[in-house]
Each structure stands twice: as C-alpha cells, then as structure tokens.
Amino acid sequence: MLSFSSHQRYFLYVGATDMRKGFSGLSGLVRVHIGEELLLKGDVFIFMNGRRDRIKLLMWDKTGFALYYKQLESGTFELPRTGMGSSKELTWSELVMLLEGIELKSIKRRKRYSKSA
Predict the structure, then answer these.
(1) DSSP secondary structure string, 14-45?
(2) What's residue 117's pLDDT?
(3) Are 112 and 88 in contact (CB under 8 A)?
(4) What is the pTM of this model?
C-alpha cells in the first residue's frame, strides 16, 4: 500500500522529468542525480514535468517499487527554492502543501523543538 508519513525522507528532483519514464527510468534519475539509496525502506523520490502540472512519487516498499502519479486539471505545482545541486530534501508537511497547491514561500513557521542531529 502506498502511504506517506513524517517518518519518511522526501527527495525532490529539481530538473524537468519526462513523465513517460517508468520505474526503471526514474530509478536511473535517482542513482545519477540524487545519489540516495533507492532500496531504503520508505524514502520517496519526487519528479515533476517541465510545465509542473504533473508529478510522480517513487518509493520502495519491501517487495517492489510503488508509484504515485498526479495530473492537475488546472494550475501548477510550485517548485521549492533550491540551492546548488539537482535535488532538495523536503519535509512531509512541505510535500503535503506542494500536492495541495499551498504556496510554500508564504508559509511562516513558528518555533518548535528539533532534536539535534
């Protein structure tokens, strides 16, 4: 079953992705550009097309890859600001806001405890 939670890590590939890519093509993008281990339980890799009206989320779930695909009827997904590199790690709440169409740069976060790494 495909489900997402705050216990997972989320990696956004910031380049435009050909949405015809399937499991193998997207896995190749992860290996070459994101550089994270594909088979770690629960890591989710996020891809958008050039027009940002389609998004794919790829994850490994113990027995194989699972894919979530969403196409917007109108509007676009926001591409979060990134520094250098071809990927950006997102939080679960950022992913939810991205999928729901909430503008990420307008969000103001209140101070919360965070365990140091």
Answers:
(1) EEE--TT--HHHHHHHIIIII---TTSTT-EE
(2) 56
(3) no
(4) 0.84
